[in-house]
Automatic annotation (TrEMBL):
One of the Pfam families matching this protein, by short name: HrcA
GO biological process terms on file: negative regulation of DNA-templated transcription
Name of the gene: hrcA
Domain of life of the native organism: Bacteria
Assigned keywords, A-Z: Repressor, Stress response, Transcription, Transcription regulation
Ranges for domain HTH deoR-type: 34-62
Organism of derivation: Rothia aerolata
Protein name as annotated: Heat-inducible transcription repressor HrcA
Annotated ranges, domain Heat-inducible transcription repressor HrcA C-terminal: 103-313
NCBIfam families to which the protein is assigned, alphabetical: hrcA
Main function: Negative regulator of class I heat shock genes (grpE-dnaK-dnaJ and groELS operons). Prevents heat-shock induction of these operons.
Protein's UniProt keywords contain Repressor: yes
Gene3D superfamilies named in the record: 3.30.450.40, Heat-inducible transcription repressor hrca homolog, domain 3, Winged helix-like DNA-binding domain superfamily/Winged helix DNA-binding domain
């Protein structure tokens, strides 16, 4: 019972702080949440939560605020996304169901998600891996540099200069043969995430070439990222210790954002959440990102980004709900 009560206390602190942006004290918790215990009991629970690193005192007041660890515990152990309300469903149906083209559907989706959550919303355009690899070439430039070239079945030529360990011509030829054997006629997306080439030596040479190849897969997926609602970030400047300009720059750096989104794997509840310093690059260390996938054949991501002081219940519910509705449209 004690653990359950402390969860209720943490939940109340998170909800009150998200709502008010003010540190939360024991008296306010009892008055607002009908905890049916004494102030001394609540203060003891708050002391335990503070010892566990879930809440902290921002200054010498009696109030407490959630920490990153507290938000993470709240999201993982307490948050249970609710179904969309009837009003939210009507808004989604009205805006998305009346769109004349898929371009308009995507644009309306990202705007709607921003309006529902009062956060900046992002939507990754779906990518169909139609380009397959026809040829790979490794051209020596200098002792530790080569040009990595990929030619797709459509005739598209991709090239990148890679810095590699010292190599011999024989090693380069052998590596090209091994890559063609493994990747020929595979989609460009298969280049992403490959860290090693089993059985090839020297492994460090293969690793650096594979990193270069991985950039081609990212470029294939970075054709478009829709963003809406950055004004909400401007309205939340007091939640950030400094200017929001680096956050906006990270949003505009599409390859960086797409790489981050692609790393977020949703859980059994249908969404993924990264909080604060869990995010890379460091410009996003004071933000939280909530995403979900849409589509079925080639799942793609949409989500929101905002301060760690976020209404996680509303946000996760909206992101998951909008993603599911968009999937239904795409499947029809």
């Amino acid at each position: 019972m004690t653990e359950a009560r402390r969860q209720l206390v943490l939940q109340a602190i998170v909800e009150d702080y998200v709502s008010s942006r003010e540190p939360v004290g024991s008296k306010a918790l009892i008055e607002r949440h009908n905890l049916k215990v004494s102030s001394a009991t609540v203060r003891n629970d708050m002391a335990v939560l503070e010892e566990e690193g879930l809440i902290t005192a921002p200054h010498a007041s009696a109030g407490r605020i959630p920490t990153e660890k507290g938000y993470r515990y709240f999201v993982d152990e307490i948050t249970s996304p609710r179904p969309l309300t009837a009003a939210e469903k009507r808004a989604i149906h009205r805006l998305l169901g009346s769109s004349d083209s898929m371009e308009e559907v995507y644009a309306q989706t990202v705007r709607l998600l921003s309006q529902l959550t009062h956060q900046a919303a992002v939507l990754q355009y779906p990518v169909t891996p139609v380009n397959t690899i026809r040829h790979i070439e490794l051209v020596p430039l200098a002792e530790t540099q080569i040009t990595v070239i990929v030619i797709s079945d459509s005739g598209r030529v991709l090239q990148k200069i890679a810095t590699v360990p010292a190599y011999t011509d024989e090693q380069l030829t052998s590596l090209k043969t091994a890559l063609l054997k493994k990747l020929s006629h595979q989609p460009l997306s298969s280049l992403q995430g490959m860290a090693s080439l089993e059985g090839f030596e020297p492994a460090d040479l293969a690793s650096e070439v594979l990193k270069a190849l991985g950039h081609f897969a990212e470029a294939e997926q970075s054709s478009k990222l829709l963003i809406s609602g950055t004004a909400y970030l401007a309205q939340a400047t007091s939640d950030f210790s400094s200017s929001i300009a680096p956050i906006l720059d990270a949003l505009e750096e599409q390859v960086t954002m797409l790489h981050l989104l692609n790393e977020m794997a949703e859980d059994a509840r249908g969404f993924a959440v990264r909080i604060g310093t869990e995010n890379e690059p460091t410009e996003l260390a004071e933000t939280s990102i909530v995403t979900s996938t849409y589509g079925s054949e080639h799942p793609t991501r949409l989500g929101v980004i905002g301060p760690t002081r976020m209404d996680y219940l509303t946000t996760t519910s909206a992101v998951r709900g909008v993603a599911r509705y968009l999937s239904k449209i795409l499947g029809s």
